[in-house]
């Protein structure tokens, strides 16, 4: 496969995925080295493709998604349910952050699009016995949620409100 065709196929692969695609997965799909994928991604970025590198892989933002920031609060046991509520409505949880009185904004990328993503995140919290960020601010935290339409963001807002998690929308 020629380099230009591979790059076009990489763009198609990224566009068809709602979750990040790892460099390793791309190298297996296209049967090239991981370094070749890194070079292809760099060239695609230079050609003005909006490809973002995350700790879980590459995503392409094309066209730019709609987003809202949801200020929420709930107890520790409801983390999974809150995140399920967002992804079940079609939202993509890009991050979580808190506004700490001393440290300011503390933000972590999540990139959760499916229940399996949520399960993996919640399992990671349990396995590593890690405290969620919301513990720093008496359970109040924020999520940046992306969606392909305003109606999906409205559905997320409605569902979070119905469950009593939503404080406000920014």
Automatic annotation (TrEMBL):
Residues 71-166 form the 3H domain. Ni(2+) binds at residues 74, 82, 141, 143. InterPro entries: 3H_dom_sf (IPR035922), 3H_domain (IPR004173), HTH_11 (IPR013196), NadR (IPR026043), WH-like_DNA-bd_sf (IPR036388), WH_DNA-bd_sf (IPR036390). One of its GO terms (molecular function) is metal ion binding. Signal peptide: none annotated. Pfam families: 3H, HTH_11. The keyword rRNA-binding does not apply. It comes from the Bacteria. Keywords: Metal-binding, Nickel. Residues 6-59 form the Helix-turn-helix type domain. PANTHER family: TRANSCRIPTION REPRESSOR NIAR-RELATED. This is Transcription repressor NadR. It comes from Acetobacterium wieringae.
């Amino acid at each position: 496969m020629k380099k230009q065709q591979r790059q076009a196929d990489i763009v198609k692969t990224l566009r068809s995925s709602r979750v990040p695609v790892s460099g390793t997965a791309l190298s297996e799909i296209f049967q090239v080295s991981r370094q070749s994928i890194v070079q292809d991604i760099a060239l695609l970025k230079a050609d003005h493709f909006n490809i973002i590198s995350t700790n879980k892989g590459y995503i392409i933002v094309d066209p730019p998604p709609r987003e809202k920031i949801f200020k929420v609060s709930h107890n520790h046991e409801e983390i999974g349910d809150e995140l399920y509520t967002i992804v079940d409505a079609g939202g993509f949880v890009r991050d979580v952050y808190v506004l700490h009185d001393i440290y300011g904004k503390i933000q972590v990328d999540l990139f959760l699009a499916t229940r399996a993503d949520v399960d993996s995140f919640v399992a990671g919290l349990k396995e590593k016995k890690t405290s969620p960020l919301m513990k720093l601010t008496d359970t109040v935290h924020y999520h940046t949620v992306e969606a392909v339409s305003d109606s999906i963001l409205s559905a997320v807002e409605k569902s979070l409100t119905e469950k009593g998690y939503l404080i406000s929308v920014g």
